[in-house]
Request: fold
Amino acid sequence: MLVHLMLALGVSPILPDPQPLRLLSIMNTADKSLIERILTARVYDVAKETPLDFAKNLSQRLDNQIFLKREDLQPVFSFKIRGAFNRMFQLSAEERARGIVAASAGNHAQGVALAGKTLGIRTIIVMPKVAPDIKINAVKSFGGEVVIHGNNFDEAFAHARHLEQMEGMTFVHPFDDLDVIAGQGTIGMELVRQHPDPIDAIFLAVGGGGLVAGVGSYLKYLYPNTKIISVEHEEAPTLHDSIKAGQRVQLAQVGTFADGAAVKLIGEKTFEIAKNVVDDVMLVNTDETCAAIKDVFEDTRTLLEPAGALGVAGIKKYIAEHGWQGKHLIAITSGANINFDRLRHVAERAELGEGREVLLAVTIPEEPGSFKQFCHAVGSRSISEFNYRYADSKAAQVFAGVKIAAGKGEREKLLAEVRAQNFAFVDMTDNEVAKVHLRYMVGGHGQGVDNELIYRFMFPERPGALLHFLTSMSAGWNISLFHYRNHGSDFGRVLVGIQVPPEERADFNQTLEQLGYEYWDETDNPAYQRFLG
Reply:
């Protein structure tokens, strides 16, 4: 392309639209522009040009032309190898001799380790205690030296910077570095070649911002009418909140389901670029992300990690909200480093995310034929689960999962049919306690359990977390219910019942604040009131 050649030679092209030139002036550095860095980036010694696959099933179902940029097919199963290698290739001989230190819980760690092996550079990667064994072993297999330190990424990051100072090593940032950004931007160069027709929008995950800064800058420079739409999990909205505030916002907490994009603070450089190239920011939830993982599997037979599926989840939600038809849309499937023990949770939540399952808490008469009457209300739909416990001689509480066809109005139709049978019920499809805990618990109402409070916690997955919780509780506060679920992430989900007399509630609330764990009061949650209270 003439524009490419002119940029590579340092000649500024004259384009009819002033927007690209405005963007380029923002992104200029002291020696060369970010666009030039992308054009001259060195990535293909280890990375490969990944295919742009047409998603047939998704395209037919959503009435748009949807393509998947398959960065999950990289040697480290993530786009991170591009930025890591380009950054390390630019190092001087002296910097290489000192060795590299980095901090990561997964994808960046593997990219640095493989780049180091290829370039003959010693690499030390600090990983937190919660990093899964599959990622630790992968880093070691690429020749990286792993140092386990800290209970989360922030603590690992701080220790890596300490090693940088103490050992005189060179630190390779996972996203807030122009050479890293340029490496990720080479994806944009490939997209222009692979899809020469106009692209209406590109959807890509955002964590620290390196991917959206690189790809967004390149595409906006050439095609300012192409929409760059970032997608974040609703529990880690770092770019969303920063753009809304007009400055970088550090999140107090981040959810870790989409751990590859769970960053508390977007990069300084990446934010300055992103706020000029991003057209819209989408927030998606866990159910929508799981449904997107299933969608990609059905089209490609590949299992993405949650962060890798955010772009697809964003496409689906954006189409639904804006009524798009016949558009050419691309999602970057950014990673496939998923832990095997997460697959169960993904499968369970995908049906809810696709709108194919409804969870109902139904009160039925405690008499023969009641269950048959309920099944009649459900009709020909399949019952995915049916949980019952005797309550009294008059009524029974039933927790049921019902399969429905995907489509607008199907959920409302089912509820109307159940209502027509005069059953009292609560729709719990969007109730987090019901989805994560209740449907897997056995038991029933606590008999003689006085002053019971129900709280939901996020426990850090590290040794001593439970002991810390138990020792923080007063000796007089009895734990009357305890349910724990972990999904292969660095936080476990816990539901706890605690008996606290009214006169001790103030002390209890102070204990919760000092505990340091994220928590929610669920005492009034209808899932608890109907089945456990």
Notes: Residues 14 and 270 are 26 Å apart (CA to CA).
